[in-house]
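Hello again,

I reread your note about wanting to compare the complex against the isolated chains. To keep things tidy I'm splitting this into two emails, and this first one only covers the full assembly. Below are the input lines as submitted, including protein chains and any nucleic acid or small-molecule components. They are followed by the predicted structure of everything together. The single-chain runs will come separately.
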Amino acid sequence: MAEQFDVAVIGAGAAGMMCASVAGQRGLRVVLVDHASKLAEKIRISGGGRCNFTNVNAGPANYLSGNPHFCKSALSRYTAQDFISLVKSYRIAYHEKHKGQLFCDNSAEQIIAMLQAECAKGRVQWRMPCKVAGVDQTATGFVLHTDGGEIAAKSVVVATGGLSIPKIGATDFAFRLAKKFGLEVVEPRPGLVPLTFHGPDWTPFVPLAGVALEVDVETGSRKGKGARYGHFREDLLFTHRGLSGPAILQISSFWTPGTPISLNLLPELDLAAELIEHKSSTKKHLHNLLAQWMPARLADGLISAAGLQPDARLADLPDARLRALGAAANAWSIVPDGSEGYRKAEVTLGGVATRELSQQSMMAQKVHGLYFIGEAVDVTGWLGGYNFQWAWASGVAAGQAL
Ligand code: FDA
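Full-complex prediction:
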């Protein structure tokens, strides 16, 4: 005989715990099922262990989705301020780090403990670790076939996230289940991920691993149906395999394989104009001049990529070569050959298509009682606390609608 619940939430991560606690506190009998042996690993490792739990500026413009309007309803009904109030009520100390990003002063564990306490308030029952082999619709709702027996529930909320970081338990469960119930899934791909480069154009930059600087980065186009365009000013980091740092993680979500990204390594300086203007008034070598404005190793890389000598004197170089060097620094266009993939991606773009879901409740339009929330849905935030804010907001939207 299957255990009976009003709601079965599959996936006890950020969205799942939020949803279960809200539904439980409304008096529903809720069971939370997760296959992992350790609770909420992604929250634990997030923000370098301090969990960038929201962003005070979070709004629909900070999300990528097939339908940019879809996230508006949930985000406006459960805002960053609402989550901050919850955090404050648990006396969790936090601070703003950069561009509205809020982090715990101490540990991400505090956010996990807070969500557990909220679930306890709602008398949520836990089944963990517990594998869900499948879900079937019945006359009265759904039945979950698990390795701990059958669980019957009037409604099922799928909160199993995306494919990022498989080694801590990410699976394609949500996408498989959506397809089984005839729902469209937007092809998933890694987002917020380092980009990789190789080949002759990249050779001068191989020795630069570890070099970091603030840059402007852009990719894509604003024109055409479904066009994606991204532009950020953030820190760039050269790695052994390519480029990373917040600038690249942000732009990776907008990047289409085979197309270039464009970097301005000196966003506050027109390098060609500066070099040409100072041609007659400086005796400095090219390298020493460039190293005033950028890390010395990067200056070496750029000079070498432009086919120049580091000890060349400015006065000896034709303006055309200085303009080419300026363009290499101010408008460096380079085509990544790929990304580090789900192994390193912080999020999964794509997911259950928004047109399949109600933006008020997150319930599937075609399957009464079946809900999808969090990263499993085709709504993906920028880097900076936006993804957790979507997990909280979509979890609350479903939790209140169940
Ligand atoms: P989440 O992945 O949190 O939870 C899914 C749950 O489902 C997991 O507990 C998993 O075990 C379970 N599950 C999966 N398959 C299952 C199955 N078949 N059966 C049962 N259970 C199953 N975002 C942000 O806003 N600020 C930040 O600081 C960071 N930092 C960060 C660092 C790193 C390294 C990563 C990888 C990601 C981030 N993120 C982030 C992104 C953020 O962690 C992510 O968007 C949310 O955790 C998504 O919440 P969900 O609840 O949707 O999925």
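For quick reference: The pocket of dihydroflavine-adenine dinucleotide is lined by residues 10-16, 33-36, 40, 42, 45-47, 51-52, 132, 159-161, 164-165, 169, 171, 173, 346-347, 374-376, 385-388, 391 (CB under 6 Å).

B.
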